Amino acid sequence: MTPSIRLSGAEVRRGGRTLWTGLDLDVAPGEFVTVLGPNGSGKTTLLTVLLGLLPLAAGTCEVSGSAPRRGSADVGYVPQQTSVDPLTPLRGRDLVGLGLDGHRFGLPFRGRAERTRRVHEALLQVDALELADAPVGALSGGEQQRLRIAQALVGDPGLLLADEPLHSLDLARQRTVVELLERRRRDHGTAIVFVTHELNPVLPVTDRVLYLVDGQFRIGTPDEVMTSETLSELYRTDVDVVRVRDRIVVVGAEDRLVHTGGGPR
Amino acid sequence: MSTLDLLSLDFVRNALLAGVVLALLAGLLGPIVVGRGMAFSVHGTAELAFAGGAGALLVFGTDAIGWGALVGAVLVALLFGALGRAQRERDSVIGVLLSFGLGLGVLFQSLYTGRSANKFGLLVGQIVGVDVGDVLTLTGVGVVVLIVFAVVRRPLLFASLDPDMAAARGVPVRVLSILFAVLLGVTVALGVQIVGALLVLCLLITPAAAAAQVTASPTLASVLAVVFAEVAVIGGIVASLDAGLPISPFVASIAFVIYVVCRALGALRTRRRATRTALATG
Q1: Which structural domain range is residue B89 located in?
Q2: ipTM of the complex
Q3: Which residues 64-93 of chain A have a CB within 8 Å of chain B?
Q4: Nearest-CA distance from A96 to chain B in Å?
Q5: Predicted TM-score of the model (pTM)
């Protein structure tokens, strides 16, 4: 089967600085890869590459067997949260609809019924039907985030890229979103690349972790990567990784990362 | 003569036709102008259209006013379109160019020795001076703007209201920004010749701002903005004929009243939604 993502010898440079180099990563359909690392380690940049917005400095990148292409219908994207002005003329259903055909030029007359149906379905998936007619700018961060996920899923993507999608959601909503993503990859074989500061909410569904620190990285199952030894190597300082019940707690290198609590960045 | 008699006159009919076309364009572009936070750059574009028109009048005479306004407006709109999204930088550049344009315009006008009606028209409008040729030009240009706008509307809306996501989805955000600036420049240049530089804002901003108060649907916002703009222009022309005064104060006042009413309705709507949310969350 064609891997959803195939990176080999990938190197990314930004502003004259090499963020990471020699990255080899195959992501299978339906696989859940969690990307961790401190700010500035190039987590979001990885998504930018996969979206086809930034070329690699070296190496190759394939998404579903071909070079990443801007605006590919096969890639869904949940961006980092941005605030929307309260008076923006945009309702929940409009935001989701833009994810489906917002990039398309031409008159919007074809396939209206189908469009309405798919938007409705996407809203239903994230339990956000009641937000369909609400102005996006008047919604809470969590409500906007659910719409963003619907916006990313409405095109029925084979690959979903999510940048801190749990940020500003309460625990119950976090769980809903994680369950939703879990169902999505199980039922539709959608591969998920999930960038976050906080591993614990997605620990039960994470197949592999990509941990980026200062151009160094480790890839493996959470058990392989989230060890005192590995993280101490990555951070080049003493880091203790402790399992407490079903959570992983990282102690040390606090100035570099926010691992516990899931609070604001 | 009664208003009805006046309406049967050719020049009045021309004025009304021109007003209808202009209001349609302004109403359609307005919500995007508001969505992109471009009110100030519309004002800047209008002043440069004024300077361009005044310069053309001085050098080439009355027939060149339209072209001068068009060149001034489109050039500066392109420049504004190419300025990024950083609000502060944008505001100050617009402020610098706006005041310079206004200064130039006033200079050109003081040097002009022809009829004074030609001078003030660019600032406060000279809709009664519109002839059949003007209406045809306006309609022709209007149709072109409409067609281009219809084709790019959806990605333009995406790029204006949700820019980061639009860029990630492959929408050519920068190209659209420049293209929209040209559409806007053309519309402003037409508007300056009819309602005047000082009043272009009240057709491009006020109706759309009013619509944004009462609906969050982008389609309905466009429809309402067009309706509001049409009401302001047609109402303004008819009222000015009746009173024998320039149309500007009437257009501006009608648009303003519509805005105030919509704002009140909007406040009511927000309060009702807040109550509903409070009830729902207990």
Answers
A1: 3-198
A2: 0.81
A3: 69-72, 77, 79, 82, 84, 87-91
A4: 11
A5: 0.85
